[in-house]
């Protein structure tokens, strides 16, 4: 059974999470200094989230945005995304086995990776905050 | 039979005789190449009283059938002998340019036995083999030796050389090609030094013939674009083997403070971004390898200046960085440069210093034991002072030159701080973040190692062989479930893929098992299936392990050191650790190995055609 029942539930959880990251004084600066525009293309359920950090100051989140041109595209099932933010996904293995397809400049992605380290705990804390402990397995 | 040259050189340095050993089709089909064939040569010439520095210890350099062909990432060689560091089967595997050149000279390998009275080097061409005087080069570091020999013999030669560490029998001395391509592990450079063999120089331009070039071209046309698309390859090209450092920190793969700490805030100073910003200058690569994971670095300023040259790999960044709580890439570059020049292995050297730091921290040794050095965690000057004494064995250098396990034996204490399996310090990948590594390390044929079986590449995720179910479905990374069956199959496939055919685990990671077999068949003209190569891999694994049994290795030596499987109090793997004993028990059963002795059942050996090994282990009259 999929972790998220529908796109609305997925949107509520992940947009809320990204908003939390955007307002975090420690995390946000490390994200925005990448100046990346990253699009997560989720399926089962379907949803597209774009993180625009191109101005180097703000992390702007848009849903199903067809206007912005992402520098990095990441396609995956929503379940895989959830596992990733829980810190339980082997990213290398997911990419090798094509559970996650990444398109974009590898050097910039490598530079961005360390910024993700503290986010796994924040995701767990956030799920608890919104009463979704059931999603932490 | 194509791919092979059909000829192995045997040089006896005692009587200065050279002859040729044919590499038959039967031998090739059964033992493939690399350390598979080397192990067969070793057992055929086995002497019960052999010791590592005995002239009779055969030092065997072997290529595989793909070396020198257009197949990417396969122009590699292995060097094998009884290891002076571990006392069991030793081998090391290296890229660079030597393997292709040896094939172009018309040879598949070189066996060196005996001991020269004076320093010599081998000069090998398609037409002649000469044993030449190397007195002028003895004492030179590997960089100067490479330059001096090329100055004399021309730029068109390839050279393997030892440095002062090998000459002085440092037990983990390495063999170096082109300054940055090292056969580092298990002390093969010391065996070379014990024979007074300073270098091997090879020259030749004869191409390697392949059986079905049309078929090979078809396959290559399909796979070559992947080297421009595969994320792992692109990351390696961008940031070298250290590209995985940040992910490793996040997943608990990187050992910190001699495996005693789960997180360290300063680790970020060792990642790929800073590497690129501070020390990186250029990309470098091995013969015909589009991955290009090697780094050229330079440090112009400060106390740790380094001339432009080969940079530290991931393993060295960890062994002299996180392991010692040193967060300075320029310092690590300095140590790496020194180790390359002097010719010794940075994994064993760094781990040995980390072990001594733990002993010092816990009061097991004092300054008096280590030349007055204050060996506190993170003390770079102390590390540098000790490291510089290793190749000459000056003062405490004599102690360090033995590796950590022998130091513990000499001191009669501190074994709880060791990170060795079968005497070999484990590499920089933590089984507490990846439980399969526990059984991978325990059953690696040369001691703690992450490349001879494919447990690490498969569980780390960059290699994927969907045709072999055991290498796909191996359960949760933090559970012991399915790890024994994974290790058995990973050993079998690894013995073929990495040790014998000889693919680089990084460059070969873009391939699946079917493609690997198809390429191998197109080059050699054989008609192997995946099952065939697994069967051959199994035979080679039992043979190498069996050789170590002949030198006393038993089940107790399969145990992992407590230090690397004690749960950590912090970090991404807090509170968890593999149950290595449980994994081993299952593994022994799968492999028909006696759990008390660790020895294979006689019937198992006979079923694999390992009759001589069976006789040696079970018929004491031989």
| CATH architectural arrangement of chain A | 2-Layer Sandwich
Name of the top-level CATH class of chain A: Alpha Beta
Largest beta sheet of chain A: what is the strand line-up?
3-2-1-4-5
CATH topology of chain A: Nonspecific Lipid-transfer Protein, Chain A
SSE string of chain A: HHEEEEHHEHH
Number of domains of chain B: 3
Outline the biggest β-sheet of chain B. 6 strands, mixed
How far do the termini of chain B sit from each other? 34 Å
Shape of chain B: globular
Average residue-wise pLDDT of chain A: 95
Strand segment tally of chain A? 5
How much strand of chain B? 5-15%
Q: Averaged pLDDT of chain B, please?
A: 97
Provide a count of the helices of chain A. 6
Can you characterise this structure?
With 137 residues, chain A is of the alpha+beta class. Chain A has one domain (7-130): Nonspecific Lipid-transfer Protein, Chain A. Chain A is 43% helix and 20% strand. Chain A has six helices and five strands; from the N terminus they run ααββββααβαα. A five-stranded mixed sheet of chain A has the order 3-2-1-4-5. The longest helix of chain A has 17 residues, at 7-23. In chain B, the strands form five sheets. Chain B has a six-stranded mixed sheet with strand order 2-1-6-3-4-5, sandwiched between helices. In chain B, strands 8-7-12-9 form a four-stranded mixed sheet. Chain B has a three-stranded antiparallel sheet with strand order 13-14-15. By secondary structure, chain B is α+β, with helices and mostly antiparallel strands. Chain B has 24 helices and 17 strands. In chain B, α7 (213-223) packs antiparallel against α20. Helix content of chain B is 37%, strand content 13%. The A-B interface holds A 87, 90-97, 102, 106-107, 110-111, 113-114, 116-117, 120 and B 231-232, 234-235, 238-239, 243-244, 246-247, 249-251, 268, 271-273, 459-464, 477, 509, 572.
């Amino acid at each position: 059974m999929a972790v998220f029942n529908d796109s609305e539930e997925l949107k509520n959880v992940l947009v809320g999470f990204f908003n939390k990251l955007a307002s975090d004084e420690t995390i946000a600066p490390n994200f925005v200094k990448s100046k990346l525009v990253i699009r997560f293309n989720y399926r089962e359920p379907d949803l597209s989230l774009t993180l625009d950090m191109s101005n180097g100051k703000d992390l702007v989140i848009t849903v199903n945005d067809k206007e912005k041109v992402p520098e990095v595209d990441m396609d995956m099932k929503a379940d895989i995304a959830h596992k990733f933010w829980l810190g339980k996904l082997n990213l290398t293995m997911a990419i090798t086995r094509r559970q996650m397809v990444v398109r974009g400049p590898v050097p910039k992605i490598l530079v961005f990776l360390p910024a993700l380290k503290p986010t796994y705990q924040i995701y767990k804390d956030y799920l608890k905050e919104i009463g979704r402990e059931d999603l932490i397995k | 039979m194509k791919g092979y040259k059909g000829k192995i050189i045997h040089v006896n340095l005692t009587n200065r005789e050279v002859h040729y050993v044919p590499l038959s089709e039967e031998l090739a089909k059964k033992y493939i190449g690399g350390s598979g064939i080397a192990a067969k040569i070793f057992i055929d010439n086995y002497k019960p009283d052999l010791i590592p520095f005995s002239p009779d210890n055969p030092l065997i350099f072997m290529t595989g059938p793909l070396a020198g062909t257009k197949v990417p990432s396969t122009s590699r060689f292995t060097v094998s002998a009884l290891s002076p560091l571990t006392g069991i089967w030793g081998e090391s595997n290296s890229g660079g340019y030597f393997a292709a050149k040896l094939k172009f000279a018309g040879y598949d390998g070189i066996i060196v036995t005996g001991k020269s009275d004076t320093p010599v080097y081998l000069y090998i061409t398609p037409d002649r083999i000469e044993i030449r005087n190397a007195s002028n080069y003895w004492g030179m570091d590997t960089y100067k030796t490479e330059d001096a020999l090329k100055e004399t013999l021309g730029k068109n030669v390839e050279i393997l050389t030892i440095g002062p560490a090998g000459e002085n029998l440092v037990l983990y001395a390495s063999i170096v090609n082109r300054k940055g391509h090292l056969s580092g592990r298990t002390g093969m450079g010391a065996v070379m030094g014990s024979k007074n063999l300073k270098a091997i120089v090879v020259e030749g331009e004869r191409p390697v013939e392949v059986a079905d070039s049309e078929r090979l071209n078809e396959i290559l046309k399909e796979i070559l674009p992947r080297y421009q698309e595969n994320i792992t390859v692109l990351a390696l090209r961008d940031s070298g083997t250290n590209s995985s450092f940040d992910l490793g920190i996040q997943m608990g793969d990187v050992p910190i403070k001699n495996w005693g700490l789960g997180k360290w805030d300063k680790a970020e100073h060792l990642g790929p971004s800073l590497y690129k910003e501070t020390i990186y200058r250029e990309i470098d690569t091995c013969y015909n390898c589009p991955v290009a994971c090697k780094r050229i670095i330079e440090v112009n300023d400060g106390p740790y200046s380094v001339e432009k040259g080969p940079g530290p790999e991931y393993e060295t960044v960890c062994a002299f960085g996180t392991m010692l709580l040193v967060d300075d890439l320029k310092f690590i570059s300095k140590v790496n440069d020194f180790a390359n020049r002097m010719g010794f292995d940075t994994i064993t050297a760094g781990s040995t210093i980390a072990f001594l730091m733990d002993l010092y921290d816990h009061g097991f040794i004092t300054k008096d034991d280590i030349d007055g050095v204050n060996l506190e965690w993170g003390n770079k000057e102390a590390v540098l002072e000790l490291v510089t004494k290793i190749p000459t064995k000056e003062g405490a250098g004599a102690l360090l030159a033995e590796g950590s396990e022998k130091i513990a034996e000499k001191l009669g204490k501190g074994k709880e701080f060791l990170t060795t399996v079968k005497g070999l310090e484990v590499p920089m990948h933590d089984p507490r973040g990846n439980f399969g590594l526990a059984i991978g390390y325990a059953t690696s044929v040369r001691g703690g190692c992450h490349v001879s079986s494919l447990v690490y590449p498969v569980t780390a995720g960059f290699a994927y062989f969907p045709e072999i179910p055991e290498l796909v479905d191996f359960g949760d990374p933090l559970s012991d479930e399915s790890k024994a069956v994974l290790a058995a199959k990973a050993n079998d496939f690894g013995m073929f893929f990495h040790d014998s055919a000889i693919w680089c685990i990084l460059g070969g990671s873009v391939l699946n098992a079917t493609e690997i077999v198809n390429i191998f068949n197109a080059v050699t003209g054989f008609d192997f299936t995946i099952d065939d190569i697994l069967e051959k891999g199994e035979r080679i694994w039992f043979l190498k392990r069996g050789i170590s049994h002949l030198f006393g290795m038993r089940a107790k030596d399969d145990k992992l050191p407590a230090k690397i499987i004690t749960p950590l109090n912090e970090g991404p793997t807090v509170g968890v650790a593999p149950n290595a004993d449980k994994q081993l028990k299952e593994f022994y059963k799968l492999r028909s190995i006696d759990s008390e002795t660790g020895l294979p059942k006689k019937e198992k050996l006979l079923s694999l055609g390992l009759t001589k090994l069976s006789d040696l282990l079970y018929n004491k009259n031989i």
